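Re: [ENG-882] Designed sequences occasionally contain unexpected residues at chain ends

Forwarding the minimal case from QA. Structure tokens:
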């Protein structure tokens, strides 16, 4: 960057020299910098370079907007209607001209967790330190005191402990002074010879995959409390434990395939073994499979498909990572479905690759995905979006009523047909009129949102 006078007293204008760098150029530059810079300095420069490269990829997307870019970088502030439509731009309802509803006051309460919130806590009964039930009252000395079993005093005591602890067993050794043979004590009952037991593997997996705790972060935490746990060791422990769980995973798939409602979606994923030079080997492999008309032969993207199945009041969550799309993974799952069952209801967004080819489902596109399109364009179309979000809010309210009343599936269906059906039909007609009467430009953000919803 260079500075030069712009005119006026001491004024300067920054100018930037544009440099085109590919991914390979950035990688080579970082490799050269690693050799000459201190490690602490290099790590900061590497983070900046990676962030800059990612930002450029996002900006290359022709559909990106400043508002969407801000959400990617900083996350959405809120998708609640009262937050989205909090604007001084006149009436939000193009039909009634009504004013936005006043925000509701926060619900009362001190925000603390009561005893019932600690479902995993150990309950221990503590007798009185001095008195016993049936004895005379030490206060009035006339009556007798009795145990209030249904109303004990409650003290919640929360203690801390490391995610993983370790015990060192010093096994006694005895040595014969004549023949030299050594006799070592057996470990205590229930203690095997393996360094890491099943509970250690479970805790590491819960931290990593249940809580999103990176390997390196858990490594630093454990190292700080004197129980070292290198990232590579964590991976090996979880990998070996996963092999033992494969029969359970297979059974979960069979159970999930019988669900009445299934949700599925994709998210991009990076797997080092399928990237870089390893990726070239994968592509050569794909070229060999191409002769067999394999639909994955030309693919290079890696995805994780999430599938959630609702069955008998429970939800089964499954994840599949690889070259297959969500629809193909769902198709493989539903191949385990009993033929006597009716097609399941499939909930997903409107992306075509979410639908399993050659397998029949009752397709129900996600209303939340359609609503989100209007959330993103609300600043530019406040009046129209206010009307749409108000209608959808009424539908969500009806669903909350149905759940509160614990309606059966048929009862909930009839309730929505009676209460929500007319609202959605009116909204559908209004959206079509916006396009056919040319009230909205089809190529605008609002037009695209309506097209997606329709």
């Amino acid at each position: 960057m260079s500075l030069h006078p712009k005119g006026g007293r001491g004024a300067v204008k920054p100018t930037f020299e544009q440099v085109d760098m590919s991914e390979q150029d950035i990688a080579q530059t970082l490799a050269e910098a690693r050799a000459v810079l201190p490690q602490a300095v290099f790590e900061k420069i590497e983070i900046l370079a990676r962030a800059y490269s990612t930002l450029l990829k996002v900006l290359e997307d022709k559909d990106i907007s400043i508002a969407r870019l801000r959400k990617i970088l900083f996350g959405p502030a809120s998708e609640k209607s009262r937050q989205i439509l909090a604007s001084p731009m006149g009436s939000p309802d193009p039909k009634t001209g009504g004013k936005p509803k006043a925000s509701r006051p926060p619900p009362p309460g001190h925000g603390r967790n009561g005893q019932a919130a600690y479902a995993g806590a150990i309950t221990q009964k503590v007798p009185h330190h001095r008195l016993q039930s049936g004895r005379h009252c030490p206060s009035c000395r006339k009556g007798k005191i009795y145990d209030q079993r249904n109303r004990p005093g409650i003290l919640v005591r929360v203690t801390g402990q490391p995610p993983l602890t370790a015990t060192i067993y010093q096994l006694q050794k005895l040595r014969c002074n004549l023949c030299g043979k050594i006799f070592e004590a057996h470990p205590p009952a229930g203690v095997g010879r393996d360094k890491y037991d099943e509970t250690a593997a479970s805790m590491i997996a819960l931290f990593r995959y249940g809580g999103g705790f990176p390997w390196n972060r858990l490594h630093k935490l454990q190292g700080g409390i004197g129980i070292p746990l290198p990232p590579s060791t964590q991976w090996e422990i979880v990998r070996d434990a996963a092999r033992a769980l494969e029969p359970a995973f297979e059974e979960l798939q069979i159970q999930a395939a019988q669900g009445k409602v299934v949700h599925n979606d994709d998210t991009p994923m990076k797997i080092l073994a399928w990237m870089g030079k390893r990726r070239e080997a994968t592509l050569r492999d794909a070229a060999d499979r191409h002769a067999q008309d394999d639909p994955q032969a030309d693919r290079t993207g890696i995805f994780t498909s999430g599938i959630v199945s609702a069955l008998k009041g429970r939800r089964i969550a499954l994840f599949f990572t690889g070259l297959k799309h969500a629809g193909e993974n769902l198709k493989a799952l539903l191949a385990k479905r009993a033929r006597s069952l009716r097609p399941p209801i499939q909930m997903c967004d409107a992306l075509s690759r979410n639908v399993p080819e050659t397998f029949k489902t009752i397709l129900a596109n996600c209303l939340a995905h359609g609503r989100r399109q209007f959330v993103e364009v609300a600043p530019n179309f406040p009046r129209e979006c206010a009307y749409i979000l108000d209608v959808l809010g009424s539908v969500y309210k009806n669903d909350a009523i149905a759940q509160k009343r614990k309606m059966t599936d048929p009862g909930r269906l009839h309730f929505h047909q009676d209460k929500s059906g007319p609202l959605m039909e009116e909204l559908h007609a209004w959206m079509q009129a916006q396009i056919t009467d040319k009230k909205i430009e089809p190529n605008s953000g609002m037009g695209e949102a309506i097209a997606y919803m329709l």
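QA comment: On inspection the terminal residues look reasonable. Confidence is low (pLDDT under 50) at residues 1-8, 88-92. Proposing we downgrade this to a documentation issue.
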